[in-house]
Amino acid sequence: MEKTIKDVFIDELHDILSAEQQIAKALPKVAEASSSPELKAAFKAHLQETKGQIRRLEKAFRLLKLKPRVQFCKGTKGLIDECNEVIKDYPKSAVRDAALISKAQRIEHYEISAYGTVCTFANELGHKDIASLLHETLNEESNADKKLTKLAEGGFLTSGINHKANPPAKTLKEKTAGKKKPSSSEDKANSDKKNVTSLTNKAIAATKSAVTSKKKTAATKKKTAVASNKKTTSAKKVAPKKTIAKKTVVKSKASKAVVRSKARKPAKKSVAKRKTSALGHRKRA
Ligand SMILES: [Fe+2]
Fold this sequence. Notes:
Elements (H helix, E strand, L loop, with lengths): L4 H29 L3 H27 L10 H16 L4 H31 L3 H26 L7 H4 L7 H5 L7 H55 L2 H44 L1
Helix pairs in contact: 1-2, 1-3, 1-4, 2-5, 3-4, 4-5
């Protein structure tokens, strides 16, 4: 058989009925677990509202001429289980109250979502009387959620549960207030210990610096030696012994040639003189 939007609407109504029944069963335990009197009162008041919401749903089924069947809401069970875990894990305190508000608001939002949807379906299917009933409950759920927010965050004159659960951290002065003050002999022992440590550190630093300077000197000497060796080698490269010897030989040969040419020159001059003297003789003749 083909399913219609009316089937979805009726399924959702059964789901919400199961949710409300589970919530009505869980709320007394949650109220008892709260430490804040205001929060306790809010949970108790919502229990009464929840009972009225169950009556509205039963009326909606009567208007639809349907007998509600058993249909378990797994989503609500999970949310209530989380509430019970908080009660188990946290001792009764403002911190537990803050955690309970967090879990209760998840339940409220789940219900607001569900009632919003069934209101829309009821209007779509032309069930204005049922839509009006469901809208009444939707407003109650919204107000319950706002009430929980106000309890958590506080108002103009009151501080919220979240603030009470988060006291300011102790100052350093408050933390050390209960600690034992050291005696004068303890002070002296501590001071001596500090002095010894300081001297030891200085000696270590001096040794380190001496070792470093020795290493530096050795490195400088090594560098100088390498540099002088390089110079000698380059000098050798520029003027090798054999070349010098060859140059000397060339020089000596050249000087000998000069000597020889010098020896020849006067002979040339004497020839010229002889020529001029011969011409002189001819002129005279
Ligand atoms: Fe509810």
